[in-house]
Amino acid sequence: METILKNIAVPSGEGRSIQVLPGETVIFKAVSTDTDGAYTLIEVIDEPQAWPPMHLHRREDEAFYVLEGTFAFQVGDRALTATAGWFMTAPKGTPHSYKNIGITPARMLTLFVPAGIENFFEDLSKLTAAGTLDIDSIVAVAAKQGIEVVPPPPEH
User: What confidence tens digit (pLDDT) does each residue in 125-138 have?
Assistant: First the structure.
């Protein structure tokens, strides 16, 4: 079966925007229906000190490209500080997280291969909007998408 991709053009500052965690907004640039399930591309905007819990994906490879700001990344056993222009990957099965350690909002593009993770972000957004988001609900929603919340690595 041939994959048919649409011609996608999303201007800067546009795309459907949702708040997925306190202090973290996702703007959809391309989702499953746009890419025939090939990939999902989002823009992430994190307020200072915002971060997702350490997690790993069983289904998706994930790639990050920092647009502005300063993020502390943990990918596997590697800790690094990334600023505009940094690119890094978290292959499926690799525990990872990031945190905006700057004093202003930070932005990055995040690519997921294959697509479908937009469903996870939609579910998180509903819980955040309802005020019912906690670690247990994050774990439950993540498990539906093949995402596992894991403990952070020990401090050295």
Answer: 999 999 999 999 99
Residue 47 near residue 23, CB atoms below 8 Å: yes
Residues near 71 by Cβ (< 8 Å), separated by ≥ 6?
A: 46, 81, 82, 83, 86, 98, 99, 100, 101, 106, 108
Residue 151 carries which side chain, given as an amino acid letter? Answer: P
- pTM for the model stands at 0.92
Rounded Cα gap, residues 141 and 16, in angstroms: 21
**Cβ within 8 Å of residue 50, ≥6 positions away:** 21, 22, 23, 24, 99, 100
User: Going by C-beta distance under 8 Å and a sequence separation of 6 or more, which residues neighbour residue 21?
Assistant: 50, 52, 124, 128, 133
53: three-class secondary structure by DSSP: coil
